[in-house]
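Dear colleagues,

As part of the handover before I leave the project, I'm documenting each prediction I ran so the next person doesn't have to rerun anything. This entry is a single chain, and its sequence is reproduced below.
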Amino acid sequence: MDKAEIRKEVLKQRKSLTAEYIDNASKDIFKRVCELIRPNENLFLYIAMEHEVQTGLFMEKYKNIAVPKCKGRGYMDAVTDFKVLEQTAFGTVEPKDGVILQNIDAAVVPGLAFSKDMDRIGYGAGYYDRFFVRFPDIYKIGVCFDFQLRNDFSPNANDIKMDCIITEKRVIMGRQRK
């Protein structure tokens, strides 16, 4: 199956999830991710959309958080100390301003599909892949609902692999943390 078909199929499946399921699964994923993140680390974290794994618990627990701020042409920065959020043309929410963070220890990464080989399908613009090329030492934690794990796609040459993938049911380790 090609990536466009997978994106369409997974988006449809995610939209069918109940708010209760998303909330409970997100809490289970949060607990598993917390086992990999040290308390004082700088964490790069996406601001979740409605049918994604929710990230609000991370924002409550961790102090050193940066979130994506898109710059255009497929590039984004990690921004901290933001005061105002705004909706983008893509339907995401990001900071209007803030301080760019260069030192990031770990990232919680969204995706539409992940493989057991640590590959990821995002929304198709390549923002995360370009970001991780700039910051290759970040420990990349892909999070998704268990049904989003698939092995029916092949990565492109520029796709960046995750270091581990966490769902509400399991943890798949690719690279151990140092």
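The first strand starts at residue 43 and ends at 45. The mean pLDDT is 94.

All the best with the project,
I.
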